[in-house]
Amino acid sequence: MKEKLTTLESALSPIVSGSSVAIGGSLLRRQPNAAVRQLIRARVRDLTVMSWAGTTAIDLLAAADAIRRWEGIYVGLFNYGLAPNFRRAVESGRIEVRDFSETAMVARLRAAAQGMPFLPIRTLFGSDIAKVNPEQIRTFDCPFTGQKLQAIAAAEPDFTLIHGYAGDKYGNVQWPVVRDTDDMDQPFASGAKRLIVTVEKIVPHEEIKKQPSLTYIPGNWVEAIVEVPYGAHPAACDTLYDEDDAHLRDYVARSKTAEGVKAYLDEFANALPDHAAYLEKCGGLAALAALDVKGRA
Amino acid sequence: MADFTNNELITAYLSRQIREDDLCFVGVGTNGRAFTLAVGMPLAAVRLAQLHHAPGAAVYWGNLLEPDLSVIPEHFTQDTFTQWQAAACPPDTGVKCDMLARGRFDVSFNSAAQLDRYGNMNITAIGDYRNPKVRLVGSLAQPEHFAFVRRPLLLMDLDARSFVEKVDFITSAGHLSGGNSRREAGLSEGGPALVVTDKAVFDFAEDTREMRLKSLHPGVTKDAVLAAMSFVPLVPETIPETEPPTVKELAHIRSDIDPNRILLKV
């Protein structure tokens, strides 16, 4: 097996301005925020970003003016309201959007995983989501029944970024037996071209191979793996730590203006050399442990 | 007549729409009043149906199929979602999407930034899609609910900004432009069934598919309802009162389902 353990900077260096990047996580779970802060530090611009229910990761990239186009099912901040920076960028025309409903996005991911140019659905008849996007959503007749169906173009991002629970140096990433499964990280990984994963913890391969059925991202698919404790902060990593309510409130407050969030980004991304410095900036591991959930391993 | 709150009235009303063996989709989101509308009252209504007349009614909540509604969490941070016990937790959300597309859901609870005369809804953008006045959240599975669920129930506070003649963007196709337009577009029968608000209940006329005033909540006048809408719905000559909760329903809500007023808080 090939060793793929590296640094955030090295893992993300292939992602340059103009790339397309799928970003994992859903709502306030497992947003790959450490990786996103590294992309912001690297001043990457003009990304096409794809997501399931995107929150902090998408809004941070939008705040840094790194997104040219977004495609997905949702961007918001869950119980913290609309995504202020994403919203500002779409309303000002800096981000172009392509909305996909959930079955449409599932079709895009599964098509990519199967090496197919599209998969059919029959959800979006009469919806403006189809009307505004003839580039990626087209009606055709079923060759068997003649029934009208909608072809949804495969999601084919250059890179896929996912934050996971634990993995080994070979890139094998495992999920816990009990977890929150309301996401599409595994299908995103299945259809990835260049898959970069961050994990809360690197564990010995001996641990991984005892329970291979828990490996939802096989190292075989992975280009690089990086250890970033609290890598989803200020969002949550289910089974390990909760969302940071105080930090999220502060972020939302400072995001009321473009100047406010610029100062936030300078403070929490640009002025810091790496993720270790971010953790120190947030009070260090001892302070972050207050977010840990009961029974954390 | 027993004393009851508006939220208890709505919850009891919703619970009577749920039949034995129904599978009901409930979302996970938001806080404040939006939480009560999207999560609190729907969960309470399904639980009330289970206790009262539909023991086999089931919920799909987040990605949990049949979470244990006898112990509904009292606060909703991530770890509460993770730890809530359930019959099944499929490996990803695609499973729920497949169940939607195969027509396995009987009921969904929906709300929107805009809803129009024909029950089309918008959670995507206010104003022009390419140059929006307000960019909203996108679509989630709301298009699927209107396309595939047998009886979508809308749960929204009546407000002239939300109840508009025509939505700015059709996220979810309801009855489109009325009549047969929904079928002609390629969608199945169905579409939004009822709109339950804080003032009144609406359904959709069988022929034109226009929104129609179905009942007024106790103490609410027709004029108060029309004043809170940007279009005039169909108004029958006589409008019944929304049937109030029974003593038994109220006892279930207050003692068994939501004793600490979490679900029906605001």
From TrEMBL, chain A:
**UniProt xrefs under Pfam families:** CoA_trans
SUPFAM superfamilies in UniProt:
NagB/RpiA/CoA transferase-like
Q: Which branch of life, at top level?
A: Bacteria
- List, alphabetically, the InterPro entries matched: CoA_trans_fam_I (IPR004165), NagB/RpiA_transferase-like (IPR037171)
The name this protein carries in UniProt is: Glutaconate CoA-transferase subunit A
Q: Name the species this protein comes from.
A: Shinella lacus
Automatic annotation (TrEMBL), chain B:
Name the Pfam families on file. Answer: CoA_trans (PF01144)
Show the InterPro entries listed in the entry.
CoA_trans_fam_I (IPR004165), NagB/RpiA_transferase-like (IPR037171)
**Gene3D superfamilies attached to this UniProt entry:** Glutaconate Coenzyme A-transferase
Cite the SMART domains for this sequence: CoA_trans (SM00882)
Coiled-coil segments? none
- Please list every transmembrane segment annotated in the UniProt record, as residue ranges: none
Highest taxon of the source? Bacteria
- Report what the protein is called: Glutaconate CoA-transferase subunit B
From which lineage does this chain's organism come? Bacteria, Pseudomonadati, Pseudomonadota, Alphaproteobacteria, Hyphomicrobiales
